[in-house]
Every structure is written in structure tokens, then in C-alpha cells.
Amino acid sequence: MKFTVPVQAIIGPVVQVANICTSNPSNPDDLAQYMLMEVKKDALTLTGTDNTVQLQAVIPLAEGVESEGSCLITASRASEFFKTLGTEDDVTLELMDDEETLTILSDQAKYSLRVRLLPEDNAFPLFAIEEDGTPSSFVIEERKLRYMLDKSMFCVSHENYRDYLKGVRFEVDGDSFAIFALDGHRMAALDAHLPEPAEMPIAFSMTLRGVSELQKLLSTDPDLKLKLDVTDKFVSTHIGVYTISNRLLKCKYPNVRGVLPKNCSPELSVDLATLKTHVKRVALFSNKRLNHINLTFTENKLDLFSQNSEHEIGSAHIAIDYPDPEGHREINLNADYLKDFLNAIDTTEVVFGFAPPYQNTLIRPRDNGNDMDVTVKYVVSHIMV
């Protein structure tokens, strides 16, 4: 295996693919800690996986390939090394005759990295996507998908229970597209329209790692679109030189739409900047065990209150538009959850919505704070004290 490639063309893909791989130096037989490097047909293909997410980068080799071949290189070592290279020179990579050393040559330096061949009896753990049937597909703007993931991923559970809480749910029906993320106490529900309708309804759940890695690759260019292919076990898409695939969460998903409060009355708007400032201050005095803030909405006023075990008190008052002398809504919310919601809202005002049986509160932007026609809603459960 021998080929020449511009340094600037290989640094980014090596670092990106290596980041997917696991770290298990105590077990050299765990191939997921290696990056697969394959050279054939005038292209270099890099593949990394953690057995849940797989990332491939295909780099064209304009100067051709002197000889084809493949090897496994420790992902962490490859990433550390290529980060140190400059971006101006070409480099030549050659697998030496001993098949255990990869030599990297530039105009002024020579490096040797230890590699290993792919064992014949222990193939690299590539995803068998082609064997999983004909995929269902839909198209969405990269910028829109990136925005929707950014506004929802923080609601995903990091606990190791109930599989459906550990990922992001995608639902497609015609040109309607929805994303749901929840941890059992809070939920993000976002709706948007696709640029073209899908041929059939599609519903699947990606892992948190999968959507996190996908988000890193997505552009903010409003003109770029991507197609997601969904099979029974995988979702896959091509972005630039990359192909990212995620092994889907296979579990029954609850009827989360039924949790969304409907026909809220009242819906009360609060100045976002003022509320963020006071929540941050009042939260400092919250009880560490419950970590909650009390919000009481009365006539033209919102009161915030917290108290800790040392009887320290934080309180604040915010003027609001609530012209009902009999109006009264009192809720206890997790302080960190509330701060997360407020940080995710783009508009100058945030709306609190209340509907029977008043176990949850709807929190949303005053108006859609984006030009992509994405509707953002958050639901949070009340803390019982």
C-alpha cells in the first residue's frame, strides 16, 4: 500500500473518524479501537466505529495510487499524530514490507507508526447496511436538521434505563417532520416541514451518540440538503466526504404527543432576558436535594422563590401581562431544567402554558425564533413538595 495525499485533505477526516472509535488498550483484539485504512481505485477510505455509530470518509487521491492495500491503525495515535502536521505539504504513506509499520514521508521529515493487518478470521466490524433491505428515505435541509437537534438533544436521558429515553425520535409523515427527545421528566417536541414529501411514513430512534456525531457534520448553509436512508436496523446519510451510519434503538416508543398540553389557558409571556437573570440568581438558594424553583403567576406578576436547608432565601418579582384578578398558577420546576429551556429559546419572550390536569407545564418561544418554520415546544413535569 503506497499513495500520496495533500495533508490538508487528510487531517480533518482522520481526526473526525478516529473520534468515533472506542478506547480499549487493554484488549488488542477489540478492533473498534482501530481505524481501518483502505486504498484502492484512486481513493483512500477511512472507517471507524464504536459498534453503534460508524463513520467513513472517502478521500480522492488526485495523483493516483502506487499500490493498493489496507491496514489497521490505532485511532487515538493516528489522531494525535495528524493533528501535529502542517497543512501545506503533500505526504506519502507506505505500508512497509514487514506489514507492521506505516511510513509517512514529507519533504522534510519521516515518521513510522505501528499498524496491524486485518485478521482474516476477525473481520473489522463494518455495518451490514446493504443486507438490511431496501431503505425508506426522506430529504431535509442540513441547516434545519442541525437547528432542531441543537434545540432538543439536551433533553435526552444519560441514565442507563428505558432504551427509548436514550435517543432522539424522528417521525416523518408526508412533508411533516417531527423530533422528540425526553428523559422522563422533560421533553422537547419540534415540528417542521420537509422540502419534499416522503413516499411513506417513517419512524425511528437514533442513539444520543449517533445524533451528536451527525450534528458535528451538518452545515449551516441554507441551500444544502441531505437524504437519510432508514432500514430496519440502521439510518445512514452522506455529508461531503463522510458517510455516517447509526444502529437504531429497537424499542417501543410511547405516545409522546399525548403528553403535550393542549388548549392551554392561560398562556403567559415573560421577558426572557429578565427571567434568565433572576432564575440564575434565585437558583443559587435552592434546596440541593430537590433543586427546584417555585414560580407563582398572579395578577400582572410572576414571583420566583427558593429556599435551602440553611434557611437561605432567594426571591424575585417580574411584571407580566396577566390581567386576571383571580388568576393564580403555582408550579415547582427543576432549576437546571428551567435554565436549559430558557437558554434554548431564541425569542425575546418565553411563554408558559397551563392545561388540565396541570401536572406538566408547556414552555415555548413567544413566536418561532427562526426563519425555518420550526415549531419548538418543551414540556416539564412539576416537582411535588
Describe the structure concisely.
With 385 residues, this protein is α+β, with helices and mostly antiparallel strands. Helix content is 16%, strand content 41%.
Please describe what this structure looks like.
- There is one protein chain.
- The protein has 385 residues and is an alpha+beta fold.
- The protein folds into 3 domains: 2-116, Roll (DNA Polymerase III, Chain A, domain 2); 136-230 and 246-253, Roll (DNA Polymerase III, Chain A, domain 2), CATH 3.10.150.10; 260-381, Roll (DNA Polymerase III, Chain A, domain 2).
- The chain contains 6 helices and 25 strands.
- It has helices at residues 7-20, 75-83, 142-150, 208-217, 272-282, 335-344; strands at residues 2-6, 34-40, 43-49, 53-60, 65-67, 69-74, 90-95, 101-105, 110-116, 136-141, 167-173, 176-182, 186-193, 202-207, 225-230, 234-239, 242-247, 267-271, 292-298, 301-307, 313-319, 329-334, 349-353, 360-365, 375-381.
- A hairpin with a 4-residue loop joins β8 and β9 (110-116).
- α1 runs antiparallel to α2 (75-83) and α5 (272-282) packs antiparallel against α6.
